[in-house]
Amino acid sequence: METINVIRRQTDRIRPSLRFQFDYWMLLTVVALLIFGLLMVYSTTFDYGWRFKDDSQYYFKRQMVAAGLGLSAMLVIMQFDYRILRRVSVPFLLGTFVLLGVVLFTGEELQGAVRGLASGSYQPSELAKLATVMYIAHWLSSKGDRIKDITYGLLPFSVITGTVCALIVRQPDLSTAILIALTSFTVFFIAGADWRQFALAGLVGGTAFIFLMFTLPHARGRVDAYTTALQDPSQAHWHVQQSLIALGTGGWFGEGLGRSTQKFGPLPFAHTDGVMAVIGEELGFIGSMTVIVLFVILAWRGFLAAKHARDSYGSLLALGITCWLCYQALINLAVITAVIPFTGMPIPFLSYGGTSLAITLVAVGILLNISRDAAIGKTLAREERRPQMPLQPSVVSGGASARREPRTPTVISTEAVPQTMNKEVADAHFSVRRRDRRRNLSGARGRRRNGRSGRR
To answer: Distance (Å, rounded) from C-alpha 321 to C-alpha 129?
Structure first.
């Protein structure tokens, strides 16, 4: 008896069906936030655009263009292997350093700060959020357990993060610097840093933060206003007062979409920092909680992507992006509700700002890519654990004598399967099975004809 062992050929190519294993919870949540944000941008800017640009849809159109560019980039980034980003993380961060330096020398001053290029249309500080997260994730994942050593861990990490934050503080933009520092230190701690290093970094960072608050004039004024408001709410920062009035006016169900009165003057920057206050006034407590629930779902899916990522780089990158988006939303909500001193921090997806929206959608595309890769890994691992069904034995018969008497069959078995498959052997096996089926069919037809002739 001759035995031929056959297995299915293994391949690293991704089947077409696996290419669409995206995290649809995350995707639908982001789409809902984006639609919500576009509605609120139009609601908060149509009067402003009519008065200053002679076009009520001027800012809405600009936001739509940014959303289109961001969505296109997100769809592209969702497809390729996110590990390619390792190769560009260093030049990306260096390019961001250059742009942050260019802003300090050639940027235009708006509202007492130099933050943007091209009349404030492009803000490199938004790019710095993504560049820092990408580089920190790459750097920490390459160090492994060596980050517990202060010379390999805390010291270079502090230099990298401190350089980015120092360039942003010079604009000045203290809130963005705090956001980047919080996100970076969270990723650093989760990556396995020693708790003593983390405590030391927190002490040094907290000291620097307090020093800046009492050194920068605008920050000192906001801290003084906050401490005064704790004793007398009527002395709170004007922006905070109007935000609280808007939230209180909305009640449970709000005044109706587009019917806010605070956005027409009393509430400064209603289309950027104060958009959540307008949501509270127009859509009430229910609308505000809907937005918060959407951000909670986004955080849940982002942390799941970080948990199930197939490598440490993907895990840290997903963690950094999720922390960045969640911290930014939390800071904005805390400012609007007077929990912390006032600071200008837009809320992701909802506030007006083309650079912020486009960069945020790119970051979400990376998150979706990581979650897709994790889902593909789980599917392939499940298929590898699934036992293979053995092929049915096939009897090889030949010659006219095979019809008169049985002969010893040649069995094709799948026992003792080797790691590789000979293509010629597999083709021979399947050709033998097709030949057997043809012979069996011809034999059955012959017996039926003989039976009919005998009856005659």
So the answer is: 9
Q: How does DSSP classify residue 20? A: G
C-alpha–C-alpha distance, residues 393 and 65, integer Å: 63
Annotated domain spans of the chain: 16-382, 395-455
Cα of 455 vs its chain's centroid, Å:
78
Q: Give the pLDDT confidence of 201-218 residue by residue, as tens digits.
A: 888 888 888 888 888 887
Question: Which pTM was predicted?
Answer: 0.79
For 246-290, give the secondary structure using H, E and C. HHHHHCCCCCCCCCCCHHHCCCCCCCCCCHHHHHHHHHHHHHHHH
Secondary structure (DSSP) of 132-146: HHHHHHHHHHHHGGG
On whether the CB atoms of residues 333 and 217 are closer than 8 A, the answer is no
Residues 6+ apart with CB under 8 A from 379: 18, 21
Reduced to 3 states (helix: H, G, I; strand: E, B; else coil), residue 109 is strand
CA–CA separation, 312 and 315 (whole Å) = 5
309-322: pLDDT as tens digits: 989 999 999 999 99
